[in-house]
C-alpha cells in the first residue's frame, strides 16, 4: 500500500492510499469529475445497446467529435481488456443513431462541440487503478486510438487526492506498421476539411508563433494538433490553444482557473 505525504510549512500529513470499494463507486467519481477526462463530454453511464454483448460503462464525445467508449475496471488491467473494448467500438461504429439519440437528450450541450454523424471516429478509453505496461504493446497494433489512464485515490478528513497517470508508449521495440485509421492533422488535412486556404496558413503560423513564445517563456507544454483545434498541453490537460470557429475564422481559447467548482473555457 503506497503512502502520500502532504507537507505544508507547519506540518506533514501522511495519507494512506484508499482504493475504491466497488467499481460503481469508482465509476461515479469519474462521471462526477469530468476534469479527469478534460476534453471529453460525458453523455451517460451504463449504456445498453440492443443485442451487443456487455455494456460500456460510459459513452462520451470529445472536442474532435469522436465517439468515446469509456471502460472502467476496479482491478489491475492487462491486455485481455482489449478484445472487450473492441466489441464496444464495433458497436459504436455501426450504431451511431443510438449515440446520437443520447446526444439529442442532453439539454446543456457544449457550444464548442459538434459531431458529424456520417463521418466520425471511435476513441477507446480504459480507466483502472493499475494498468500493466504490457497492455501498450497490444494497443500499438490496433487501428483505434486508445487512452490508458490510471487513477488512484488518497483520502484525508473528507478530502480526496487523485493521482491521474496516462500511459504512453515510450520506446517501441520495433518500428510500428502504418495504421490507416489514424489521421494526421496538418495543413493538408484542414484544406481537405474545407477550411479557407489563407486561414489555414494563418492558423498554422499562429500555432507556431505560440510555440516560439512557449519556448521563450520556458513553459513545459506539448503541442497537439487536433481535428478542430491546436492545443498546448500540460501533461494531458489543455492549458490553452487555437480553435477553428468556422471555415475562415479561428480564435484563441484559454482554460481558466476553477471558479465555484466549474472549469471555465474562454
Give an overview of the whole structure.
It is a single chain. The chain has 266 residues and is α+β, with helices and mostly antiparallel strands. The protein folds into two domains: 3-166, 3-Layer(aba) Sandwich (Trna Endonuclease, Chain: A, domain 1), CATH 3.40.1350.10; 187-254, no CATH class. The chain is 25% helix and 29% strand. It has six helices and twelve strands. The chain has a six-stranded mixed β-sheet. Strands 9-10-11-12 form a four-stranded antiparallel β-sheet, covered by helices on one side. A hairpin with a 2-residue loop joins strand 7 (146-156) and strand 8 (159-166). It starts with a strand and ends in a 12-residue tail after the last strand. The model is unreliable at 171-180 and 259-264 (pLDDT under 50).
